[in-house]
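Deliverable D2.4 — example input (structure tokens):
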């Protein structure tokens, strides 16, 4: 069991670090976007996706959250997802997938399900660059997770 525990812990840590790395990369990407694309995103999701996610989760619990509280909730979910992606990639690597391949596969699946899948009702409203930022972000999560798992492999 200690081998599995190590896999889970290593995966969780790799996913957390990858989530933080994703934020840096997508933040830089966002800063380079046109003012028009940033304005359009703000019209669709005021305060950003994490704030909107936090608001939705608060409403599901019968609470109206201000932007700061909603942002904290959204960020907690974002970090939890990143950690979970790391665990999933580590489990795939444990089953014989190369760690980088496992990380990239989980990152791609996360982009398809979380970014694109949950945005289906509004997907066509977003500028193409918004979708590209999500793809770059999740590729970053996958690659970072995979490299960290490869570096820690026995």
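Example output (designed residues):
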């Amino acid at each position: 069991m200690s081998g599995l525990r190590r896999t889970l812990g290593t995966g969780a840590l790799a996913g957390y670090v990858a989530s933080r790395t994703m934020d840096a990369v997508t933040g830089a990407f966002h800063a380079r976007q046109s003012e028009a694309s940033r304005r359009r995103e703000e019209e669709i999701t005021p305060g950003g996706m994490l704030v909107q996610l936090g608001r939705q989760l608060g409403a599901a619990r019968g609470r109206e959250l201000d932007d700061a509280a909603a942002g904290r909730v959204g960020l907690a979910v974002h970090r939890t997802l990143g950690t979970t992606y790391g665990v999933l990639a580590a489990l795939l690597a444990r089953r014989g997938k190369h760690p980088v391949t496992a990380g990239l596969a989980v990152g791609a699946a996360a982009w398809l399900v979380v970014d694109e899948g949950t945005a289906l009702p509004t997907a066509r409203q977003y500028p193409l660059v918004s979708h590209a930022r999500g793809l770059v972000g999740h590729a970053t999560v996958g690659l970072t997770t995979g490299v960290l798992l490869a570096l820690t492999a026995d």
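The helical segments are 2-32, 35-44, 49-60, 67-94, 99-118, 128-152.
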